[in-house]
Amino acid sequence: MKKIILTSTILFSVLTITSFTTNKSTTTSINVSKIENNNLILAYVVTTNNIQIYFKQYECAQRYINDFGGTFTGTIYVKDSQAISCADLE
Q1: What are the boundaries of each domain within the chain?
Q2: Superkingdom of the source (predicted)?
Q3: DSSP secondary structure string for all residues of 20-55
């Protein structure tokens, strides 16, 4: 009897985790569609002196860090006009 209860508990746990994973990916798809409709781009964030600077390309962010300092802190979706391109650094 204990084996049946243990097996059913494990099976229920696996099914619950699987259903949460499915819901999360569905939510992600909806968020990506919303982002594309708002003309947002994925920008690379560099933090220096408690200021966040957004770059359109990772290479530009890395070049800024090498030249001026700062740390790469991740990515964020922003409007195209808010992010700096490599041409802006020259």
Answers
A1: 1-38, 39-90
A2: Bacteria
A3: HHHHHHHHHHHHHHHHHHTTEEEEEEEEETTEEEEE
SS3 state at 83: coil
Quickly tell me which residue has 């890395």 as its tokens. Answer: 62
Residues in Cβ contact with 72 at an 8 Å cutoff, skipping those fewer than 6 apart: 44, 45, 46, 61, 62, 65
Question: Do the beta carbons of residue 61 and residue 40 sit within 8 Å?
Answer: no
Largest CA distance in the chain: 73
Nearest to 70, CA basis, from 58, 62, 60, 78: 62
Give per-residue pLDDT as tens, 7-64.
555 555 544 444 444 444 444 444 555 565 678 899 999 999 999 999 999 999 999 9
Provide the 3-class DSSP secondary structure of residue 76: strand
Instruction: Give the Cα separation of 75 and 42 in Å (integer).
Output: 7
